[in-house]
Amino acid sequence: MQPGASRAVDVGTEAEARELAALRAGDEAAFLALVTRNHGPMVRLATTFVRSRGVAEEVVQETWIGVLKGLHQFEGRCSLRAWIYRILVNCAKSRAVREVRSVPMSALGRVDDEDGPAVPAERFRGESERWAGHWSEPPEPWPDARVESGEIAALVAAALETLPEAQRTVMSLRDVDGWEADEVCALLGITEGNQRVLLHRARSKVRAFVEEKVGREGRPS
Fold this sequence. Notes:
By secondary structure, the chain is mostly helical. It contains 10 helices and no strands. The protein folds into 2 domains: 14-98, Rna Polymerase Sigma Factor, Chain: A (Orthogonal Bundle), CATH 1.10.1740; 105-214, Arc Repressor Mutant, subunit A (Orthogonal Bundle). It has helices at residues 14-24, 28-46, 53-70, 80-98, 105-109, 144-149, 151-161, 165-176, 181-188, 192-214. Helix 2 (28-46) crosses helix 3 and helix 3 (53-70) packs across helix 4. Belongs to the sigma-70 factor family. ECF subfamily. Keywords: DNA-binding, Sigma factor, Transcription, Transcription regulation.
């Protein structure tokens, strides 16, 4: 038995427990599946810290080396995914320092008061109204044909690239990769309130970007 294989691991699901056991046993297919599933999201997150996609790819490779070296010391105090991404963030931060482009994690928690949402305030309910902050003028649904063709997805991807780094990171993790709010807060070291503000501003800007391209009623602008 490999060292650490008998250690109790609270991984949350039987599927993850089986995956972890296979990885610890040296199952190459399991490791390849793990890499394939996470490569894109990991590169996307790494680009928040480093200067180019090429460097981000190197950071991801360094992360996987760290995963292989530390796998048998993983104690299951968080999910396997969270553990891997924390290694990624640490590798990315170290690489950013070497690349003279350090972006401190504390910056992700700062919310610039001048950086307001891109969607006009009148489209939300006022503080004195019931459901304050919710849509008063909801977004129109986009035409199914455009959604099915991938046009909207392409526009959303383009819009993400225009966002400030903190907003792009939070929205990518939440809406693209499906992370829960508490997972994002733990990974990035930010408060739940800051996470919520960053996500709201990112979503409003992406919505405004797409609406500008396709029109509020789905017509070209």
